[in-house]
């Protein structure tokens, strides 16, 4: 009779080992699936970018151009443009952000595209009248190599003069990563 109890004991131990193995496999597979999902939210790679800050002759403010030179194509709806400017007139630093892109109103960002300090010129034709051709990628669906983001910092809200600095960060919102950072001096 002692032999029969040992046989039942070994069957139960095998069943328990199999159950532990199945539970462990399920936990590891769920962890692997969660890891794979977070890898999909990686930021695009912008291999090179270029920037220019052109002070205006006869006008306050200035035009900022950020060029996507090389790297991944980025959906404009997935980016925000954060701007910090050292304002000469009052000696303060102001921070504004272009959001909810691409701009839907006309050919440039409007008040519903601006958060923080309103540094941006929203008037129609403000760029074309002063030498820039358009707002580039701010009104398109994709920001591709060769594309340019153009906006004008309005004079009066933040007076900028030669030697003043503007820092522009293009943020990929799904990953919260800065994909372009340019510090520009007039």
Short description:
The chain has 186 residues and is of the alpha+beta class. The chain contains one helix and ten strands; from the N terminus they run αββββββββββ.
Describe the 3D structure.
By secondary structure, the chain is α+β, with helices and mostly antiparallel strands. The protein has one domain (46-185): Sandwich (Immunoglobulin-like), CATH 2.60.40. Helix content is 20%, strand content 35%. It is built from one helix and ten strands, in the order αββββββββββ. It has a five-stranded antiparallel β-sheet, with no helix packed on it. Strands 1-2-8 form a three-stranded antiparallel β-sheet, with no helix packed on it. It has a two-stranded antiparallel sheet with strand order 3-7. A hairpin with a 4-residue loop joins β9 and β10 (177-185). The longest helix has 38 residues, at 2-39. The radius of gyration is 27 Å and the shape is elongated.
Key terms:
35% strand, Pilin_N_archaeal, alpha+beta, 186 residues, Immunoglobulin-like, 20% helix, five-stranded antiparallel sheet, three-stranded antiparallel sheet, Archaeal Type IV pilin N-terminal domain-containing protein
């Amino acid at each position: 009779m002692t032999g029969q109890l040992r046989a039942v004991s070994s069957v139960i131990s095998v069943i328990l080992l199999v159950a532990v193995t199945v539970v462990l496999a399920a936990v590891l597979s769920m962890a692997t699936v969660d890891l794979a999902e977070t890898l999909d939210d990686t930021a695009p790679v912008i291999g090179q970018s270029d920037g220019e800050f052109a002070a205006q002759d006869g006008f306050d403010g200035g035009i900022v151009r950020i060029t996507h030179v090389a790297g991944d194509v980025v959906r404009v709806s997935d980016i925000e443009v954060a701007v910090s400017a050292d304002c000469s007139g009052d000696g303060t630093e102001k921070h504004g952000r272009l959001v909810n892109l691409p701009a839907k109103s006309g050919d440039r960002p409007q008040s519903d595209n601006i958060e923080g300090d309103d540094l941006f010129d929203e008037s129609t034709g403000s760029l074309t009248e002063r030498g820039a051709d358009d707002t580039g990628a701010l009104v398109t669906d994709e920001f591709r190599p060769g594309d340019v983001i153009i906006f004008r910092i309005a004079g009066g809200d933040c007076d900028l003069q030669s030697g003043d600095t503007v820092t522009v960060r293009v943020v990929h919102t799904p990953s919260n990563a800065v994909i372009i950072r340019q510090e520009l001096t007039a």
